[in-house]
Write a structure and sequence with these properties.
By secondary structure, this protein is α/β, with parallel strands linked by helices. The protein has two domains: 5-16 and 89-223, Rossmann fold; 18-84, DNA polymerase, domain 1 (Orthogonal Bundle), CATH 1.10.150.240. It is 46% helix and 12% strand. The chain contains ten helices and six strands; from the N terminus they run βαααααβαβαβαβαβα. The protein has helices spanning 18-30, 38-45, 50-61, 69-84, 94-102, 115-125, 148-161, 177-186, 199-202, 217-223, and strands at 5-8, 107-110, 131-135, 170-174, 189-193, 207-209. β2 (107-110), α6 (115-125) and β3 (131-135) form a beta-alpha-beta unit. α1 (18-30) crosses α4 (69-84) and α3 (50-61) packs across α4 (69-84). It is globular and about 50 Å long. The termini are close together.
Length: 225
């Protein structure tokens, strides 16, 4: 494979933020009378962006309607930022891996996280300028597992890598089955990182890694050939 670009998921791949997202959702939902368990979050709702997760939880619980979702999204964002202030966010080796890959090919992010959440973490780590494209929750109308986030990321990366860039020239790095499905539907090759789920829980991927610590473009090209 001639690898021309790499697209990272954010939560669960770069940032160890999924436990904080669960806690923030759990805390704001408590005011609506909904008790969100950690098991249900990881099994049923993690793959959605905030609005999608809250729509699904509301539909499942019957405790609140669609008109309340926007308010809950805003409150969850405030709670998440409070929790984030006390936490180290990057996975071990993530910053070095991003720098190595960005030195070889253009890189992007396709995420269901809010743009402000992504940028806070990247700016704190001095990584923002390494990303040629960032697709956040508010940039697409359909979140993962829909292919829209990855299709947009590839289009944005084509402005840097060349108009001939195709999804099949790119690799997506994901930690969930929803993200892997989104990338596959968009036509990207897939790498699963077992930060959040086991291999059995993730399903099919072209390559599986335990972490980002040894990630580099030369090894990816060889392993995905």
């Amino acid at each position: 494979m001639k690898l021309r670009a790499v697209v990272f998921d954010f939560d669960g791949v770069i940032a160890n933020s999924e436990p904080l997202h669960f806690r923030a959702l759990h805390d704001v939902l408590a005011s609506t009378g909904v008790s969100l368990s950690e098991r249900d979050y990881y099994a049923r709702y993690l793959g959605f962006d905030d609005a999608g997760a809250l729509h699904a939880i509301g539909a499942d619980s019957g405790a609140f309607g669609p008109e309340q979702v926007a308010s809950l999204v805003s409150r969850k964002a405030v709670r998440f930022e409070e929790l984030e202030a006390d936490a180290g966010m990057l996975f071990p080796g993530a910053a070095d891996a991003i720098r190595r890959v960005a030195a070889s090919v253009p890189i992007g992010i396709a995420s269901g996280a809010r743009r402000d959440e992504i940028l806070r973490v990247l700016e704190a780590a001095g990584l923002t300028d390494l990303f040629a494209a960032i697709v956040a929750a508010e940039d697409v109308s359909r979140s993962k597992p829909d292919p829209a986030p990855y299709l947009l990321a590839v289009r944005l990366l084509a402005a840097v890598a060349g108009d001939s860039l195709q999804p099949g020239d790119c690799v997506a790095i994901e930690d969930s089955r929803w993200g892997l499905e989104s990338a596959r539907q968009a036509g990207l090759r897939t790498i699963a990182v077992t930060h959040t789920y086991t291999l059995a829980e993730l399903g099919a991927a072209d390559l599986v890694l335990d972490s980002l610590e040894a990630l580099d473009v030369a090894s990816l090209s060889r392993q995905l050939a």
